[in-house]
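Task: fold both queries, return tokens.
Query 1:
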Amino acid sequence: MADLYETLGVGRDASFDDIKKAYRKLARSYHPDINPDPKVAERFKEITAAYEVLSDPDKRQNYDVGGNSFGGGGFGFGDVMDAFFGGGQQRGPRPRTRAGQDALIRVEVDLAEATFGCDRELSVETALSCSKCGGSGCANNSRPRTCDICKGRGETQQVARSILGQIMTSRPCASCQGFGSVISDPCGECAGDGRVRSRKSIPIKIPAGVETGNRIQLSGQGEVGPGGGPAGDLYVEIVETQHEFLIREGNNLHISIAIPMASAALGTVVNIQTLDGVQGVEIKEGTQSGTTVALKGLGVTKLRGSGRGDLIVHVEVTTPNKLSREQGEILKNFARLRNDEPGMVQIHTNEDQGFFGKVRNAFR
């Protein structure tokens, strides 16, 4: 049998809060609702079984000294410890009605939905209260009857001899599994559990400004607990899909456009597609490749604030790689008018804010 502490990934000196946090993290990863793989479901059972032992002080103490914390007969050193540290005191039956577990699902949204928010209808397979028995687990409006073995106490007592004399210990009743009552006429729909697995639709409002990794908590939309117990919470994790030509960086968006050399030299106005429709962008006369133009307020909505980020337009000036004879002559005349001699070059110093400044900024 695997070590229970290793199963949860905690040390033997872990506190109750550490054990609880470890269990919740693993349960969200291996929950059957997230991954229906039978191997994952088996792993989930192991994690839950380990948590049931290590989260109970008495079971954990018994396990630490080599006892059988999963039930069964026999008498060992753990029984002696129970007698001296309160294990033999009656704790009463455990309730049939217990809170349900939390659940986690992932939802994909595109950039427009993340920017402006949207409404979704989620279809989730989960544990729901049995409609046939109303969550009681009993058929034909019957009720659980008091256990004949433990008389409703949920535990039985045993007397054993040890080197210290007679020791009285308590164990969960094997007949009723510690509930103190027995369902003699279980519901045929849920087999006495009070809940069934089914699909349900949940409306959800995704706020504007979300991004990958954000989680939305839907209280009471997780699994219904055994015996019709209160439902846990449902956590919706956002996964933002990649846009065709817009790149998100925080609340800002980036777009790269290419314009002809003549348009960059003379200046022009180009139309680009944004999340808000077609927008005109002014390209000033003499624009160089690498120039950026900021369109204010056309970025992503700020999730925890007001307003929106900007849309940054990155301009690339394209140079023709093949010219006709007439085009070549025109460019040569243009070069002569500018006194641009063949082979002329300008070298930038390290202090220049031109080429080297852009290189430094790119690496930063």
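Query 1 returned. Query 2:
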Amino acid sequence: MKQYVIDELRPKDHHKIKEYLDKTYGPAEMESIYWVPLAVEVLTEIQHQHSDCQPFFFAIDLQEDQLALELLVRTKSRVRCACIGDAAEEQRIWIMDIVDAIFKLLDIVT
């Protein structure tokens, strides 16, 4: 699986990120996984067509010393479907910009 990883997080930065993610996206599921909803504007054609599968998400895995962003678009309603798969280029840019904006907002230097 493709990932965007930011490693060597300091404990105080981990705490700030966790606090932000909890507040913005709700508490982590499965210990360290946060679900970030994908903006409708960046859905692919097939994702737009699959209204039963919506909403779509990216998963962020926040560990003590790293943040890993899975570059896979998922839905919580199904395990397999044609609309689930690797993020399109526009989606990758969108979610990486979200993560970069979080770090900037929290004044975390990577």
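Both queries returned. Flag for query 2: The first strand starts at residue 3 and ends at 7.
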